[in-house]
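Re: weekly structure request thread

Next one in the queue (288 aa):
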Amino acid sequence: MRALTIPTYDPQIVYQECINSIQRDCNLRARLNEVTDKIVDAAMDYEQKAKAQLLYSIPQNNCKNDEIALGEVTKKELKDVYSLHMVERAKPARAIYDSLLSQSHLGKCPFCGFGQASTLDHYLPKAKYPQFSVLPFNLVPSCKDCNTGKSTAIATTAEGQSLHPYFDHQNFIDDQWLHAEVIQTTPAIIRFFVKAPEHWDDISKTRVQSHFKAFNLASRYSLEAGNQLACLRYSLVDFHKLRGINGIRQHLTIEAQSYSSLHSNSWQTAMFQALVASDWYCDGGFQL
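Done, posted below.
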């Protein structure tokens, strides 16, 4: 997971920018205007709970799309504020959408760390939390795989929450919890797993597990690693001829340290550490 700076957009201004683009349906615009205070109150509650890692405690809205969700506004109408008045390229609020999307570091998805951030993900899905449809704090740049492929389960406990790029920083970023091991097959396979530091509290330990599972990172990282190993094979053959097993391990150690200095929990950091630790791989397993 990659940390992102919390958006500085005022939730009320964003909401107003969206609904002000409604021109033909004056009744809809009026009804959406009437719930502005409720939207702002919900945004404040979201931010407070996100900072306390308590987003799971916000009640879900299980009404149907055509049923009233807030004031005199239906769930579908609240959701459409996003899909019709923020995502649409011809709408003024599209500039906010693009700005939020551009906050991803080097264009990479913060949830997985390697996919291209090409869309905005609702951390709390608008299907269950329509009041947060255009809340900047709830819109996270992500790749399509993370946005559409994540688990549909919604956390109902503190430990079940996946990591939030805007709010879950510090130990989740600084301490290493993603690890890997080499499986001695032909060709070699990298198995990724989560092992949080012992000094972490139990909730934090379980949360990184939840994040790892929700975004299917074990198989996705393993696939990326397989491609990297295929590329590594040719350079390592030359290193082995020149410097033997020690040269191989020294080269892999440098790579591991380089990736770790950038991101403690990147799949590359975990992979190169696993390669360094594998005598089998360093002593010729890379050639199989």
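Strands lie at 68-70, 73-74, 119-122, 139-142, 178-183, 189-194. Residues 86 and 93 are 5 Å apart (CA to CA).
Next request, please.
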